TrEMBL record, chain A:
<comment type="similarity">
    <text>Belongs to the universal ribosomal protein uS10 family.</text>
</comment>
<dbReference type="GO" id="GO:0005763">
    <property type="term" value="C:mitochondrial small ribosomal subunit"/>
</dbReference>
<protein>
    <recommendedName>
        <fullName>Small ribosomal subunit protein uS10m</fullName>
    </recommendedName>
</protein>
<feature type="region of interest" description="Disordered">
    <location>
        <begin position="1"/>
        <end position="21"/>
    </location>
</feature>
<dbReference type="InterPro" id="IPR027486">
    <property type="entry name" value="Ribosomal_uS10_dom"/>
</dbReference>
<dbReference type="InterPro" id="IPR040055">
    <property type="entry name" value="Ribosomal_uS10m"/>
</dbReference>
<keyword id="KW-0689">Ribosomal protein</keyword>
<feature type="domain" description="Small ribosomal subunit protein uS10">
    <location>
        <begin position="37"/>
        <end position="134"/>
    </location>
</feature>
<keyword id="KW-0687">Ribonucleoprotein</keyword>
From TrEMBL, chain B:
<keyword id="KW-0689">Ribosomal protein</keyword>
<dbReference type="GO" id="GO:0006412">
    <property type="term" value="P:translation"/>
</dbReference>
<dbReference type="InterPro" id="IPR026146">
    <property type="entry name" value="Ribosomal_uS3m"/>
</dbReference>
<protein>
    <submittedName>
        <fullName>RT24 protein</fullName>
    </submittedName>
</protein>
<dbReference type="GO" id="GO:0005840">
    <property type="term" value="C:ribosome"/>
</dbReference>
<dbReference type="Pfam" id="PF14955">
    <property type="entry name" value="MRP-S24"/>
</dbReference>
<dbReference type="GO" id="GO:1990904">
    <property type="term" value="C:ribonucleoprotein complex"/>
</dbReference>
<keyword id="KW-0809">Transit peptide</keyword>
<keyword id="KW-0496">Mitochondrion</keyword>
Length: 163, 137
């Protein structure tokens, strides 16, 4: 009856591999990134310091090599306005906005690693105070440069490679 | 550079000694970043970022809205945080209303502001028995 059906079971000798719907496997060659530079901006230096610790720890846990952690100098945007609504030109008010920067450079990533790391790091971006500007440099191996031009054909092919 | 003693911006003047003042009110605006934090956190004012004016307008509206939906209950200025699309409002309230009314007001503000600003809004409330005094001026 029911007990017999359970003992017979649907588990055979061949077990189907469990396919995780979140993991996608493709045969295309992955684009490689030579350097991934993440620039974080904020008003509060303490928040940026803690975020740097978090990002470096996340990179180490994922096995990504950190090239360097650069801290460019802060930029202060100042402006002087009139203090009063109508006259009194001699009395002004000065405001300033300080932006602190922190640049994180990571070496030698694949596109999937970069996607995972960036998604994790961006989801945990602290509110408002830090913003991210990402610049990636892609390694390409174009076929037409592999052989030097002066060896093969008299026709000179001009190809501009912009880095 | 020293400040002129005649500046009156966001400063509570010394009185008889009976005026209760919170930590936020006691410190002058030149202490922001050193002894004070920011009340509104967004990326509009950073170098190379846009949207400062829109955020400022939204902040003004949100503070008036919160002051109106919780009349007399707000103990200190609400802190507004923006994480991507999400808008988080953190407010300290007094325990004058029963909890089910506070839950209703929380849901009301969240849905109304969500429909108004077309972004997810989260209101995080914390109740205290009374305003925390820092000084008496």
């Amino acid at each position: 009856t029911l007990m017999g059906a359970r003992l017979a079971g649907s588990h055979g000798d061949t077990q189907e591999p469990k396919t995780n719907p979140l993991v996608s496997i493709s045969d295309e060659p992955e684009t490689l990134y030579k350097r991934l530079s993440i620039l974080v901006k904020g008003h509060d230096k303490a928040v940026l310091d803690s975020y740097e610790y978090f990002a470096v720890l996340a990179a180490k846990e994922l096995g990504i090599s950190v090239e360097k952690v650069d801290k460019p100098p802060k930029t202060i945007e100042r402006f002087t306005l009139l203090k009063s609504v109508h006259i009194y030109k001699k009395h002004r008010v000065q405001y300033e906005m300080r932006t602190h920067y922190m640049c994180l450079e990571l070496k030698y990533l694949t596109s999937s690693t970069a996607a995972v790391y960036l998604e994790y790091v961006q989801r945990n971006l602290p509110e408002g105070v830090a913003m991210e500007v990402k610049k990636t440099k892609i390694e390409k191996i174009p076929e037409h440069i592999q052989k030097p031009v002066w060896d093969t054909l008299p026709q000179v092919k001009e190809t501009e490679v912009k880095s | 550079t020293p400040l002129s003693p005649q500046t009156r911006a966001a400063r509570v003047r010394v009185g008889r000694g009976d005026k209760m003042v919170t930590y936020e009110q006691a410190h002058a605006p030149h202490h922001i970043g050193h002894r004070k934090g920011w009340l509104s956190l967004h990326t509009g004012n950073l170098c190379g970022e846009a949207g400062a004016a829109q955020r400022a307008l939204e902040d003004a509206f949100l503070r008036r809205f919160l002051a109106g939906t919780f009349p007399g209950l707000l103990l200190d200025e609400p802190v507004l945080k923006r994480r991507g699309n999400l808008l988080v409002l953190c407010a300290l309230l007094a325990r004058a209303l029963p909890p089910h009314k506070l839950y209703f007001l929380q849901g009301y503000t969240e849905t109304l502001l969500g429909h108004f600003y077309k972004c997810p809004v989260r209101l995080e409330l914390q109740t205290l028995p009374a305003r925390l005094p820092y000084k008496f001026l």
